[in-house]
Amino acid sequence: NTCTNYNSAVDFTDTDSMPILSSNRGTRIRLYKITGRGLVEMVSEQDIHGNFQAVRAVNGQAHVVTSSHMDIYTHLLNPISVYNVQAEADEGYLETATRIATDKIPAFVSKLVTELSDVTGSMPNLFRVRLMQTDATKDVESILSENDYLNSVVLVNSFDMTSDDTEIQFVSSGAMLPSSWVQVYSSLDTIILASTIYENDPMARLSTQSTHLMGIALDGASSSPKSIGTVEGSILNPRSVDVVGNVLRVATTVREQTFWVFDDFAEDILESEEPARDDEQVEEEEVDRTQNFIVTLDLDAPDGTMNELDRLDLGKPNEVFTAV
Description:
With 324 residues, the chain is mainly β. Helices cover 12% and strands 41% of the residues. The protein has four helices and 18 strands. It has helices at residues 72-77, 93-117, 135-138, 141-144; strands at 2-4, 27-34, 40-48, 51-58, 61-69, 125-126, 152-160, 171-177, 183-186, 190-201, 206-219, 222-232, 241-244, 247-257, 261-262, 282-283, 289-298, 307-314. Strands 9, 10, 11, 12, 13, 14, 17 and 18 form an eight-stranded antiparallel sheet that branches. Strands 4-5-7-8-6 form a five-stranded mixed sheet, with no helix packed on it. The two termini are 28 Å apart.
């Protein structure tokens, strides 16, 4: 049994004391034991971080998936905004903001580690922070898109449902993602987390979707990062993913659409950090380039990367998967 728990005791006037995780202990787990004649008895109750996404039970072991948005604006961006930085007489904005950020970043990291550790007593096992991005995209992501790398934390919280302990013992693993919305697929020994985001390539003048895939290995009442990969396009639902042996199969739809491009901006956008002027001409062009694929990937590559094994092109141009 899970329910959402909103923390109403937060003092929003004291920004330093505000939690980084927006759903700090936001999901309540209640574990019940079935007694005689269908009656139930609550064994334990505990709060964990994040909004509830999904739960899977395998042989008496539970794996609860939650997601938490990270409040980077309050703790890192707002203190160094041009509206809040009061530059001293002997230094400009850049020097002052750098000095403030140098103090804020270690405090942010320390606070985040504390929040992530306070349920289990230790840090979750996390995938590497930097997920795969194309070379064209990664240098302009902050200019053209709000899909920053560190927007959320998605966790798989595992525990033994057969235990008689009054306190649930969790083992957590997961990843920091650009999006807090994930699709969850589970087999007997693996959970797949799939998160779809937009990636923009200004030189090709295309905006495309890609789906990050994270394989979490299940081992009894624990879980750990196993492998990570990316496929083009988006998936429809959790039934778009399945695992057969050490092979991951993904049904994906690839849609490419041109986005708004500013004259004289696309050519040097990879080198320039200056935003476009309001008086510059804006163009928009619609391009239909939709394809559907079944992609297979290797879950057991030694380096932890899901290498693509094969792909099958399905359907006709501009068709999309509407049911799986």
